[in-house]
Design goal:
Layout lengths: L2 E3 L1 H8 L3 H8 L3 H8 L8 H11 L3 H4 E3 L7
Antiparallel strand pairs: 1-2
Helix pairs in contact: 2-3
InterPro entries: Cro/C1-type_HTH, Lambda_DNA-bd_dom_sf
Protein name: Putative transcriptional regulator
Pfam families: HTH_26 (PF13443)
């Protein structure tokens, strides 16, 4: 999938655990893991907003477009 979620990078920068972030955002640790491991097929704007608020970042800090053929 050409959209990559860099959640683990932001979590490391903010020094926050998955359990703590899941609690702050209001999602289950299992759903956070799906996002973190790039297994999600979609993300709600409300979840993206809560992640940005909890991590004090912008959506572009979490989402990255990487073309499947490797070109940009």
């Amino acid at each position: 999938m050409p959209i990559v979620i860099n959640l683990d990078v932001m979590m490391a920068r903010r020094k926050i655990s998955a359990g703590e972030l899941a609690e702050r955002v209001g999602i289950t640790p299992a759903n956070l893991s799906i996002l973190k491991n790039n297994k999600a097929k979609a993300v709600r704007f409300s979840t993206l907003e809560a992640l940005c608020k909890a991590l004090d970042c912008q959506p572009a800090d979490l989402l990255e477009y990487v073309p499947e053929d490797g070109t940009q």
